[in-house]
Amino acid sequence: MRVMSLCRIVLFWSFSANFFLFGQTSNAEKFTLSGSVLNSATGEPVKRALLTLSPIYQGQALAPRELTPSPVFSDPGGAFSFAGLSAGRYRITAQKPQYRQDPEAGTIELGPSRANFEVKLDPLATLEGTVLDTAGNPIQAVSVQLIQASVLSGRRTFRVDRSVSTDDRGRYRLWNLQPGSYYVRLSGRAGGTRTFMGENAPLVDWPQVVAPIYHGRAVDRASATPLVLGLGQRATIDFNEPLKPAFKVKGLLTNFVPHAKTVVQLLTPDGQPVSARVAVNEINGRVEVNDVTTGDYLLRATQGEGDGRLQAEADVRVSASHVEGVELQLQRGIEIQVSLNCDQDNQARDRVPCRGSMELRSAGESNYAVSDGGGRLKFRNVNPGVYSWRATSFGGYVAAASIGAEALTPGSTIHVRAGLQPEKVELVVRSDGGVIEGEISPGIRQPSLGILAVPNFESLSGPTEGQSLPDGRFFVQPLAPGDYTVYAHPRLREIPYLEPEALRNLTNGFRVTVTSKGRSEVKITAVSE
């Protein structure tokens, strides 16, 4: 009974203290916040934007319901106002279709009241156009893909950000597009995998279709010209493409499981999907791919999901007639076993578990795996192909790598072949790495400045990003012993520094030597361009 009473007292005082921390009582002085919502690109007011004001309560945007003000809309002149606010710190956000706010929401301190506070919204871009044949006639139901090019951890990535089909006028439109670099591609006739039962596939024959092509008439992404979209930009891209004869690819899925979810894809040699209408008989696994133009392709089928997924693929060449008799044998996905051999001393072993990660990348896909506490990791359902690789260790550095009896170097690849189980990958991890510590000169400090340590020798870890502190200090760890060049770049997140060409373009580097278990000092006095 005494315990329950004590708990009630603690809960009461805890709630009371939290309540009075923000604004104290309903009789405390109240404040107002007013200002305007502006288009960051033009400076014009933005009307009908929804603004939300959230008290920052014990470091989080949480507070008792009665302390959170109701959202408001900006008026036709972009003006807004909140009234009856308690003193304290708030986070303010604004939302409107076809706009975005800075990812880091603005904060404001109230007490006294604030006026003329500006909230800026970035206008998003749009892309539109028409797809016509060479005679000027509209082509409907063509899939238009917008492939976004970005950089993630020093590596270029490409993904289909948006896809839309042309209407009966051959027109398309994509909106709410973030600023950035894109590739625009016609990927063929819009379609997908459909299942059926019976003798005949439920698809209408189209004698002619548009072949996959990038804007600028490039057949692959490597030779295509990117489209760079800015804030609020309204871009137009039109296509005038010849119609080409359409053929079919027919085949049979063996080891087929009736009625299980099945997806069939056609891929170009560079790993890009081709839009096509696919019919799969869900009883016997018969496959029919429509709308295929001449060329070399990879036909890939998957059935089921998760660890029990079945997969199959076959190379297909389409010349001047339909292709028949393609057999795809469904089987369990390929697994790749990886083990970490952590060469740690007793002191390091007590502090850092033997853990790491590895990534496999090919033209069309990426696989990523993280080890368990025992230093083992596994890739599941890996498709056949040729993969580049990169491995990292948490608390150490990768000193050596091999697959079977073959040593892996930074530029080597891993070949995964259909029906063959790859040999185990072995990673040797050492814990005797050193640390680079340094300081950025006060005159060049800026919040976005990133630190990159580039080895001047063949290193399996490759370039490594550092951690920056608010006081201008930074550190990079752990690193293999050797000579490095350290760069400070204001847009490091946009630099594909895993590519040699990108590294050659960096300037104003500072040399430093890392020793085993040592700490090396360097001072950054210039920013890389």
UniProtKB/TrEMBL annotation:
Keywords from the UniProt entry: Carboxypeptidase, Hydrolase, Protease, Signal
Signal peptide (residue range): 1-19
Q: Which PANTHER family match?
A: CARBOXYPEPTIDASE REGULATORY REGION-CONTAINING
Name the Gene3D superfamilies on file. Carboxypeptidase-like, regulatory domain
Q: Which InterPro entries match?
A: Carb-bd-like_fold, CarboxyPept-like_regulatory, SDr/BOS_complex
Q: Which GO terms describe its molecular function?
A: carbohydrate binding; carboxypeptidase activity
Which protein is depicted?
Answer: Carboxypeptidase regulatory-like domain-containing protein
Instruction: List, alphabetically, the SUPFAM superfamilies matched.
Output: Carboxypeptidase regulatory domain-like, Starch-binding domain-like
